[in-house]
Amino acid sequence: MQSSAAVAQLDRVLGYEPRGRGFDSCQPHHIYILRMTHQVQVVVIGAGVVGLACARAFARAGHEVIILEKNNGFGQETSSRNSEVIHAGIYYPAGSRKAQLCVQGRHQLYGFCQEFGVEFNRCGKLIVATTDDQILDLKKIQARALANGVDDLVWLSASQAQAMEPQLQCVAALLSPSTGIIDSHGLMLALLGDAERHGAHLALNSAVRTVQFTPKGLLLTVASGGQEEPLLAQTVVNAAGHQAIVLAGTCLSIPRDKLPTAYLAKGNYFSLAGRSPFSRLIYPVPEPGGLGVHLTLDLGMQARFGPDVEWIDKEDYVVEPQRAEVFYGAIRRYWPGLQDHSLMPAYAGIRPKISPAHGPEADFFIQTSQQHGVAGLVNLFGIESPGLTASLAIADAVVQGVAQHE
Description:
Layout: H1 4-8, E1 16-19, E2 31-34, E3 39-45, H2 49-60, E4 65-68, E5 85-86, H3 97-116, E6 120-121, E7 125-129, H4 135-147, E8 154-157, H5 158-164, E9 172-176, E10 180-182, H6 184-197, E11 201-203, E12 206-214, E13 217-224, E14 227-238, H7 244-249, E15 263-272, E16 281-284, E17 294-297, E18 303-306, E19 310-312, H8 324-331, E20 343-353, E21 365-367, H9 369-372, E22 377-381, H10 387-404
Helix pairs in contact: 2-6, 2-10, 3-10
């Protein structure tokens, strides 16, 4: 039950103090400081790529939207610490949310980039078998991709693959022409800009401490500007990434057995000193917990390798230089020409997983009142890869789900 004191706070007024200039591709976007409360239609918690996509979708649907971000900038965690790959939708179980939303989201994302001028490169990738016993795995990947609606994969012999990438060593490969790379920061800028053009507001340095169900809506306690203020919303989208499960746990109306367990899988990246010999992404056959130590490219065609899979107990973004030794061995299976001392620590990202090491991979979990019983609250759990690719499709699914229960 909500205390009478908390309910009494609901009639206070929310004020915004605009700081900075209007959004465009070069200038800072609006930043709004929470002052006091009133009723807001939609609050999105977390200004990563998925949170921004959700905010944009709600704003374009005519809702009043506030985005709350605990950091002093958007996209500072998972959304800025990944491979920046636009995935085709190849690996995921047929019928899963990951498969459906990745394929749908990939089409939407390429269209969004063209419409809003976000830089991308549909460079394609090769998935490679480096031993004869991996050929069966490669055929299974091709069959799974086809079941997911990815019908443009091309089977390549070793000589055909090496004609495309002369430095590559493999016994067979699959070419995915729909795979690409994207400027993830530019994507988030464009999502935020379009959300703001449709009336959404971003509040930085605004950490949500609790979410509570009341008869009037969902009451959030927001730490901002050195004080805690209440904020009432009819719809709350919990897109808080690593903290999403912890935040959902502050809502006492959700039974504890309805919340998944959080696991953290750290992925370390190393960059290549010198020019990349490859013009496409190179992926080995997947390994448990991830897609293996693959070669990706940034938009400047600089090569980087990773991520590996390191299960951790707490957030830690330090890349230990000695991990490079494992990288050399993994990379030389498909690129034997990799020189000693050519890998440099780059960065690390952490996958917000809801499945443990050695367990079956969990699907995206878009949890609504049908699962947890709290009207108006949508929890986004386990939004790891291909979350960036699927972001626009995830946003559409959230908006449509909310509309069905209004």
